Amino acid sequence: MAEADDIDGISIRVRGLVQGVGFRPHVWRIARELGLRGDVSNDAEGVLIHAFGPRTALDALLAAIADRAPPLARIERIETAPLSGCAPDGFRIVESGAGDVTTGIVPDAATCPACLADIRDPENRRYRYAFTNCTHCGPRLSIVRAIPYDRATTSMAAFEMCPACRAEYEDPADRRFHAQPNACPVCGPKLRLEGADGAALPLADARDEIEAAARLIRDGGIVAITGIGGFHLACDAANEDAVARLRARKRRSGKPLALMARDVATIERYAIMAPPERAALEIVGAPIVLLSRRTDAPPLASGIAPGQTTLGFMLPYTPLHHLLMDDVPGPVVLTSGNVSDEPQCIANDEARRQLASIADAFLMHDRDIVNRLDDSVVRLAAGRVRTIRRARGLAPAPLSLPPGFERAPAVLAMGAELKSTFCLASNGRAVVSQHIGDLENAATHADYRANLALFERLFRFAPDIVAVDAHPDYHATQFGEVLTAERGLPITRVLHHHAHVAAAMAERGVPLDAPPVLGIALDGLGMGDGGELWGGEFLVADYRACRRVAGFAPVPLIGGAKAMREPWRNLLAHLHGALGWDEVSKRQYDIPILRRLAAKPVAPALQMMARGLNAPPASSAGRLFDAVAAALGLCFDEVTYEGQAAVELEALAATAIADLGAVEAWGAPHSDPMTAEGAPGARPIVSPFPTGGGNASNAPMRLGWSVLWRAVLADLEKGVAPATLAARFHIFLAETLADAGRRLARREGCVSIVLCGGVFHNRLLLERVSARLACDFEVFTPALFPAGDGAISLGQAVIAAARG
């Protein structure tokens, strides 16, 4: 050790996701290697290090903290300050401190290779133990009740560690040092296999409950299994009868079912996988990855993903899943454990009540799930893996906000009505909750309120402002209004589509005072200026304000909310708005779908539109997709889940676009659909409409669809294959959006264009529009957060913070 005169002292503050990931032993080991003295501790702000030693050793410590960080750590910044005083003997790890919380919670992490080796080693004391974990893997958000993240603040507090586990927990050289969920078969959570009647099932000659459950699945049974964030329902994915029974019992008629396979090699037998998709499957978050189905794949049940060309696969992410899949040769369905539209069950008694009519058996355990977490969903599009649903394994990792937000007020943003999340933003960071669901459902709304209360406790968060959607009837808006009244806080109302654009800007790191962007925001519905219903918008926006410069021509929603569920209504409204129903009828097209449409209550619907009675006009891109899908016979009468018609339309189009010689854009003979400009012979109507004064050249423009519908009807009458027609629609819409976006961005002096809103989860549309615009503009497309309503709370938060 150097002489006393050569010793310096330094205080090091490490901020970010640095608790519960083995960061203190990481520092301890480095400090001992370098011969430093001092201590390291967790507190409410992250990790605090006091180190004494030669300057060269202190510099080496600083470098190694970041360069050799544990796998689950995410360092946001490191701050240093001189430290005076006497250097203690040695270097030690001290207990957690108190204080105001500003650190984050690490998302739940898939089983690491070391723990996987433990559970497969017959000589290891954790052989086949379903709750094996260490500081590099295991449950985090799903079990935590408070910060700092210590065992006493998790649902593992109920399990007292045995001497062997305690020795690991207290040894800084062990990878289970301060692994809060650390346990073994002697002292940890236990599994129970029981029937639908609640009685324990005999294991017969099975090694354990997991092997017995695997046999039930192989034999065609449906088993409810407790995961990290809630129950799943599992069955053999190749068993037609089992999948059909699961759909019937769960009352889930059309929505695709998620699959789990034991390894990547198994998945490759069923799906085509690009390197980024394989990497997404193997990240510690272990999301569901949407993959293109192989045409030569082994058979799966026809009810897995009806009307789809993709399959949603995930890999095992807990020891229980790994052991289960070791005993099941092929993929299993692993869908959320709930009755359709209800939240996923998380408690054993709740699961027994709600799932007894669905599951033949239950594989459950006695460790409480504190926070409900659905599986995350991602998809490769336009060269990046993009989040569709952000939940288990991804949330609640914070987002560092762009420059300018460091001193903004603390904002609680309430999110949207569908695919709801909320956001806590302060101190230059935004924490967006996991996907919660659709607040129209009472149980989901209760779950939303419970999660919000928990997050405010976890982060000791006290907002200065509450941000809500401009739609007064959204449950999230109304709950925000209640909170502001109770707490005496100001409220900021944010336009839905402005929030879409701002969320993408924040993810991209656009500074607070950057010039405005042109946002192309396409979704189902959102409140616009003056109570208008928007859904296909071109906005010039920064964080503080937005201005609508163009939009889709509004079309009535016949029957209001019924139009969201019955696509034929949108087909009628679009045909009437673009061409006039009388003209369509007089023309007497020889088209079966029009005869089917004429059999609907057309006369009352026309009267409703004429009188403006329960038929509000909306510039909805989502309803345009519904209308075209209905014209092709997809989901004509009804949809069974939100977005179904658009999803099936995209899948149908993809089958034609895969055959590059099969598609010609309307009016562009022999054009390559993926490379040609594909300009139709007659461009869609893009014309200014009056706005009550101002320069006419700067007035908003309206995109109408008469050219589109004439082309659709002509193709239908010619007997053009539905897949080709679906592809032509995608090409036509993409070219229209790109052309309008280019013209508007140049007119407004915008150098950046944002593509956002749930419609841009459509890979064909996103890739074609972004490719057309990227030559001339910087194009932002969300990836870390959903393009759809799951990111609305983030957009609300940054807008309210900027205004504040």
Structural class from helices and strands? alpha/beta
Sketch the major β-sheet. Answer: 11 strands, mixed
What share of the residues lie within helices?
Answer: 25-40%
Strand percentage lies at 15-25%
* CATH C-level name of the largest domain: Alpha Beta
Tell me the CATH superfamily of the largest domain: ATPase, nucleotide binding domain
Please tell me what the overall shape is.
globular
Q: How many extended strands?
A: 31
**Radius of gyration (Å):** 28 Å
**CATH fold group of the largest domain:** Nucleotidyltransferase, domain 5
**Distance between the ends:** 53 Å
* Rounded mean pLDDT score: 92
Count of separate DSSP helical elements: 24
**What is the architecture of the largest domain at the second tier of CATH?**
2-Layer Sandwich
Low-confidence stretches at least 5 residues in length (pLDDT < 50)?
667-696
In total, the number of domains comes to 4
Describe this protein's structure.
By secondary structure, this protein is of the alpha/beta class. It has four domains: 90 residues, Alpha-Beta Plaits, CATH 3.30.70.100; 187 residues, Alpha-Beta Complex (DHBP synthase); 87 residues, Nucleotidyltransferase, domain 5 (2-Layer Sandwich), CATH 3.30.420.360; 252 residues, ATPase, nucleotide binding domain (Nucleotidyltransferase, domain 5, 2-Layer Sandwich), CATH 3.30.420.40. Strands 6, 7, 8, 9, 10, 11, 12, 13, 14, 15 and 16 form an eleven-stranded mixed sheet that branches. Strands 23, 24, 25, 26, 27, 28, 29, 30 and 31 form a nine-stranded mixed sheet that branches. A six-stranded mixed sheet has the order 17-20-19-18-21-22, with helices on both faces. The protein is globular, with a radius of gyration of 28 Å.
